[in-house]
Design goal:
Glutaredoxin; about 35% helix
């Protein structure tokens, strides 16, 4: 039944959290529509994340799910054929690593972001 619903992912190319969700969808073989969002001119679909209006947002049917770690858990529960998270006690280690990336690595990425350039353009 989960596979019958249309899956859409709202994201932006510069978000590592969007890539995390895209990878999870690919690993599970889940077909989805990717919608690139301009965060400076937010589209009405970002109303699907009314609290933050940030990406990623996964829309399964008409039901939005936001925050990459929550989306990964949703994917595991909705499409259990290829679980992303290990079973038993190893799940705690995987959750720790995910939380560490969310809380620590994210700050480092955003701290160095102003100095990143692609093809001669500096993105801020």
């Amino acid at each position: 039944m989960a596979k019958e619903h249309k899956v859409r992912l709202l994201g932006t190319w510069r978000s590592p959290f969007v890539y995390r969700v895209r990878l999870a969808l690919k690993l599970n073989g889940i077909e989805y529509e990717y919608i690139e969002v301009d965060l400076k001119n937010k589209c009405p679909l970002l109303e699907s994340n009314p609290v933050h209006k940030l990406v990623p947002v996964l829309i399964h049917g008409n039901n939005p799910v936001s925050k990459s770690s929550v989306i990964l858990e949703f994917i595991d529960e909705t499409w259990p054929e290829n679980p992303l998270m290990p079973q038993d006690h190893e799940i705690a280690i995987a959750r720790f690593c995910s939380k560490f990336i969310d809380e620590k690595v994210k700050l480092t990425i955003w701290a160095i972001w102003p100095s990143i350039s692609l093809k001669g353009k500096v993105y801020t």
